[in-house]
Amino acid sequence: MQDTKTVTVSGSAVASDRTMKRSRLTRTWKGIFQNWELYIFIAPALIYFLLFCYGPMYGIQIAFKTFIPTKGITGSPWVGFDHFDRFFHSYYFWDLLWNTLSISLYSLAVGFPIPIILALAFNEVRNGFFKKLAQTVTYAPHFISMVVMVGMIITFLSPSTGIVIHIIEGLGFTAPDFLTDPRWFKTMYVLSDVWQSAGWGTIIYLAALSAVDPGLHEAAIIDGASRFQRVRHINIPTLVPTMTILIILSMGSLLGVGFEKILLLQNPLNMTSSDVISTFVYRSGLVSAQYSFSTAIGLFNSVINAVLLIVVNQVVRRVSENSLW
Amino acid sequence: MLSGVKESGRDKIFLAFNYIYVFLAFLIVFYPLVYMVSASISDPKLVGSGEMWLWPRGITFDGYKRVFENANIWVGYGNTVVYTLVGTAINLAVTLPAAYALSRKDFVGRNLFMGLFMVTMFFGGGLVPTYLLVKKLHLVNTIWAIVLPSAASIWNIIVARTFFQSTLPSELQEAAQIDGCTNMRLFLRIVLPLSMPIIAVMALFYGVGNWNSYFSALIYLNDTSKYPLQLVLRQILVLQEMAAQGGGAIDSSSAEALNNKAEIAALVKYAVIIVATVPVIAIYPFLQRYFVQGVMIGSVKG
């Protein structure tokens, strides 16, 4: 209907351009109208994300205010950057930042290569019972809850009764007090993480390896390449895109280290090396109810994360073809 | 593909090292799991002294008996089952329709919605603003504080969307529309029955996540009677609040009894770890295929 009307009016180039725009517009409206049910499909998710993900973003403003519960978020008085100032000048600022960054980088340095090596090794094992068993077992710890995982760490490492302590002493060494010695906290955190997630982490690499063209390997065999050479020159290059994406993603959560686990592993004795930004946010915000101060620290944390992600992604996009967007 | 090729000497050495490496990895993961099971049914004295190191010794089922007698654990188990079922149902009801809509190329505004959702992967309000919101909505200390703030995960929506895009041919939808089939009917009668694998994957991913989560319960629930299993476990395993409980018959005045209490507490710990983990670990090998599939679908468009 609309189309016939516009066609009769049109004559000049400008008008026909307008017609095209309008007909594209009507087509859009027609598309929306025809598929109106799809908007009902997406409505629950939309409501969820707006309410529970964007909703809290509105509350971020209390980082620049002094939150008074009776006055609410909007009614509380503005204080500018006071909370940030207090945080940056506090005596614990550098400790928190150092702990957060060092735990992240430590787990990245150890936890990133191990699944790759394991996946390459799995890939060289002949399909059969042993491969299946090894994979099933190494994937299993992924399903152990964080609370149980930390419970296991505590029982295995508890002085005088833990099995790890017995093993270390059986080998003739004196076992350190892993649970309370600050020097051991990071290693304990990183190694237990590797135990729990390295197996599961291989899946994504095995998926990439299964896509390797068998012709490449056949050609390499004919050329006399050894197994090791084929792994080195065919399999590893295949994994590079996956590695790049995972590295970028982990950069985006550099300051968001395994908060739930650290919170459970913390005790007053290892605090000097186990307190990270997110656990500090939890303690100051929800335990001691310093809502505004804690929101400011949380905001600092998420801004750094977002900036790191964007910067790393840009850099990677410049130097290679793989990037998140 | 390599069956016809004879392995050369250096390849044999490489393969041998490779098998040793995989076997070691297997052993490192497997040993603690076996040890846990053995320790849960062994004499706590032998476990504590390190004499029990692989196979159960001095078999006793006292740990399990105490776990099953502990009312808190049962209440927690019940709560967790309810939270997991309700939570996972909500997760699926939110994720699947949204993922299907986003998979449709003729859905006007899909990029806008997708962009809106993806932003939340990288930036959020943070802990305190989220807490204040949940409080303001009067959800604190109800089941809704546990299930609603985690009603959907953008990662799972992307996985499901990728599945719909890659497995459902667009001809299917066109044919159905020519026949006058509405989108609702198309989704319920054709799309969902064809998408059982992804429904299984989503239910498992969300289900395990719900079963294992403790943090939202920690911050939003005040009543111990509403605690999920993971919080009860936290009291027993991490805060070590079990030692004084359950040993009513023991005379606590003597040193031996105190020692006994500590041993029983240790025994209970192993038993409780097994009881809490068994449902997930027991079903996992049968469903491993689905889990792996889920990760692989996700990796296609990571």
TrEMBL record, chain A:
Instruction: Give the UniProt keywords, A-Z.
Output: Cell membrane, Membrane, Transmembrane, Transmembrane helix, Transport
**In which compartments does the protein localize?**
Cell membrane
Q: Name one Pfam family in it.
A: BPD_transp_1
Where's it mainly located? membrane
Gene Ontology biological process terms from the UniProt entry: transmembrane transport
Family annotation (CDD domains): TM_PBP2 (cd06261)
Entry GO terms, CC: plasma membrane
Say which domain of life the source belongs to.
Bacteria
Q: Where are the transmembrane segments?
A: 36-57, 96-122, 143-168, 188-212, 233-259, 291-312
Which parts of the sequence belong to the ABC transmembrane type-1 domain?
97-312
Membrane topology per record = Multi-pass membrane protein
Q: Has the keyword Iron been applied to this entry? A: no
**InterPro entries on file:** MetI-like, MetI-like_sf, UgpAE/MalFG_permease
Query: What family name appears in the similarity comment?
Result: Belongs to the binding-protein-dependent transport system permease family.
Q: Which PANTHER family does the record cross-reference, listed alphabetically?
A: BLL4140 PROTEIN
Protein name per UniProt: Carbohydrate ABC transporter membrane protein 1 (CUT1 family)
TrEMBL record, chain B:
The membrane topology of this protein is: Multi-pass membrane protein
Q: Which InterPro entries match?
A: MetI-like, MetI-like_sf
Q: Which UniProt keywords apply?
A: Cell membrane, Membrane, Transmembrane, Transmembrane helix, Transport
- Keyword field contains Membrane: yes
- GO CC field: plasma membrane
Residues crossing the lipid bilayer are 12-34, 81-100, 112-131, 143-164, 186-208, 267-287
Which cell locations does it reside in? Cell membrane
An example Gene Ontology biological process: transmembrane transport
Keyword Cell membrane carried by entry: yes
List each copy of the ABC transmembrane type-1 domain by range.
77-285
Task: Spell out the family assignment given in the record's similarity comment.
Answer: Belongs to the binding-protein-dependent transport system permease family.
Question: What is the recorded name of this protein?
Answer: Carbohydrate ABC transporter membrane protein 2 (CUT1 family)
UniProt source species: Paenibacillus taihuensis
